[in-house]
Amino acid sequence: MGQNPFLRHTYSKHFATSMDNPESEHGGVERPSFSFTIASVKTNDSMTISADYIRTSLQAVYGESVTAADIRAWCAMNGSNYQTVTKKLDSYKTSRGKWNLTIQEAREQLEQVVKAPAALPAVEQNLIPEKDDTFVKFGNFGDIRKIIQSRLFYPTFITGLSGNGKTFSVEQACAQLGRELIRVNITIETDEDDLIGGFRLVDGATVWHNGPVVEALERGAILLLDEIDLASNKILCLQSILEGKGVFLKKIGKFVKPVDGFQIFATANTKGKGSDDGRFIGTNVLNEAFLERFPVTLEQEYPTPATEQKILSGLCDDSEFCKRLSDWADIIRKTFYDGGIDEIISTRRLVHIVKAYNIFDDKSKAVQVCLNRFDDETKQAFLELYDKVDVDFDLTATGEKFPIDQDTPF
């Protein structure tokens, strides 16, 4: 039978050093022929054998993965106690009766990775939004500002039609109060790695990088989850965070508690029940337990014509043009709410129009290019209505050849 190199190592390490005279009666001649026999004698004390030695020994004989039967066989061969050996191998145990002798090395490597700095330390970024001089307070702005100013954890869900200032209100409230804001645009693909964080390759090294949620937790910042109703069920990774309890980072074994002032706002075009009319395609029905963790829901409406005129006047010097645009949009919205039309003019769309006017210095062209996103029938109805609202508006100047429609809803 061939000699096992591991058993020779067992003999040399645990027997030769214990002899009073390390040299043999044959003048110190090496005794390889006795290595297998002596190593098999039950004289090893498992209490004095290190875990590293046991691991190396088992790995040399059985490979990286061992079972209870393998360890029992090794103990019988080396005169060791099974319970003592398995206790020393506890950090390598993967399941009942199974051990992976390389897992501890992987854990040590992971600990070194976790100690590495984040890809971009938080202190190097200023996340306070800039104040917008054109911003006009309206709608739920006052309530949003009070919630942020209170510094109490109070998750808030803001719902409303597109382009009515939901996100802008939160942003400007933070700007006025000097609070940091972290905005996350949610999509169907957003998952735990995007929100909580994960390992990234930076300059050839793998480092842990905090996601926006953890960054907001540690900073005590305002977290804005924009378009939350586009999310999949992967958003449920935020459940404990919405309870104000922080989050345990499973990949690095660290618990992150929220710093004082941490707050969550979520915006959506729906109330988390999907879009029945198809206007907001891609929105999903959100988990009821997830929605229940938002104690309050704010419904954001479009501003009144007077407020909207003030918003537009901050972007355009032609106050009369701004007034007519506001009145025009108000008529369209009332018709929309009554079910007369399927489309609506948002405040954002009016801002687009006045900016186009600033660029082209042509009202007709400004209105036309910003209405081109609608289908021809809707576009015709909107242009004809504006022609009635603004006596200075020349519909023929748009170059459109629309037939007169007697069934226009306006």
Description:
It is elongated, with a radius of gyration of 36 Å. It folds into three domains: 5-106, no CATH class; 122-299, Rossmann fold (3-Layer(aba) Sandwich); 305-398. Helix content is 40%, strand content 12%. It is an alpha/beta fold. It has a five-stranded parallel β-sheet, sandwiched between helices. A three-stranded antiparallel β-sheet has the order 1-3-2. Strands 6-7 form a two-stranded antiparallel ribbon. Residues 1-43 have low confidence and may be disordered. Strand 6 (197-202) and strand 7 (205-210) form a beta hairpin. The longest helix is centred in the last third of the chain and has 19 residues, at 319-337.
Number of helical regions: 17
**CATH structural class of the largest domain:** Alpha Beta
Q: How far do the termini sit from each other?
A: 101 Å
Q: What is the third-level CATH name, the topology of the largest domain?
A: Rossmann fold
- Helix-strand makeup class: alpha/beta
Number of strands: 12
User: What is the share of helical residues?
Assistant: 40-55%
Our Rg estimate from Cα atoms comes to 36 Å
The tally of domains stands at: 3
Largest sheet at a glance? 5 strands, parallel
* Succession of helices and strands: HHHEHHEEHHEHEHEEHEHEEEHEHHHHH
